[in-house]
Design a protein that fits this description.
Helix content: 55-70%
Number of strands: 0
Distance between the termini: 22 Å
CATH topology of the largest domain: Endonuclease III, domain 1
Number of domains: 2
Order of helices and strands: HHHHHHHHHHHHH
Strand content: under 5%
Largest sheet: none
CATH superfamily of the largest domain: Hypothetical protein, domain 2
Bound molecules: iron/sulfur cluster
Oligomer: single chain
Length: 231
């Protein structure tokens, strides 16, 4: 594929970052760069809504404030702390992950994608999220929300949202879209998440209120809320 960015890319980036800097969500895990805290938030967010995760996140960290504390706890104690969040396999994976990180990395969560992805329960998205949100690495973090946003804003370059074959194209596009400054790359990844959660929702995207509409190929074509949904 070519390396040129789509024609709306730079204006989209500028507009998205400007919006995020004043109106992005204030979430507890955005106040830290502690890789352990970021990792816990991302594992919780894998299957659970933000509003529900916020309380559990605080309680869990009060009980296991460090990765060593988590590694020292029995798997059943970790499951117990997870009670109410569901998808308990995440708690089991987190327990195993903590022990591996303590044994293999002396308690420091790695910052590169390959090492992160080799840990239990960590897929490509979560690896990217930890590398970006904790270490401010210039790597994409593409979950289904972000994939949807990219597919709507850049339909030709990003491909159809649910198409698996487009996943690599989206990854390449997202990587090339990342701002050069690490802090701005962090903001850009967070901003894409917020756009997907607040405006560019799976059903009935709020295009007419969306802050990036002038630079979005799908949104710019919409004239009213009654037009058909986009992919
Ligand atoms: S204008 Fe519509 S399709 Fe484009 S990013 Fe905003 S909500 Fe999504």
């Amino acid at each position: 594929m070519g390396t040129r960015l789509p024609g709306n890319a730079l204006a989209f980036k500028r507009r998205l970052l400007k919006w995020f800097r004043s109106l992005g969500r204030d979430l507890p895990w955005r106040h830290t760069r502690d890789p352990y805290r970021i990792l816990v938030s991302e594992v919780m967010l894998q299957q659970t809504q933000v509003a529900r995760v916020e309380d559990f996140y605080r309680q869990f960290l009060a009980r296991f404030p460090t990765i060593r504390a988590l590694a020292d706890a029995s798997p059943s104690a970790v499951r117990d702390a997870w009670d109410g969040l569901g998808y308990y396999r995440r708690a089991d994976n987190l327990s195993r992950l903590a022990r591996i990180v303590v044994e293999r990395y002396d308690g420091t969560i790695p910052d590169d994608l390959d090492s992160l992805e080799a840990l239990p329960g960590i897929g490509r998205y979560t690896a990217g999220a930890v590398a970006s949100f904790a270490y401010e690495k210039r790597v994409p973090a593409i979950d289904t929300n972000v994939a949807r946003v990219l597919s709507r804003v850049f339909p030709r370059a990003a491909g159809r949202h649910l198409s698996r074959s487009a996943a690599q194209r989206r990854w390449d596009l997202a990587r090339r879209l990342l701002p050069r400054r690490r802090r701005s790359a962090w903001e850009f990844n967070q901003a894409l998440m917020d756009l997907g959660a607040l405006y560019c929702t799976a059903r009935r995207p709020k295009c007419l209120e969306c802050p990036v509409r002038p630079n979005c190929r799908t949104g710019a074509a919409r004239r009213s809320t009654t037009e058909p949904r986009s992919a």
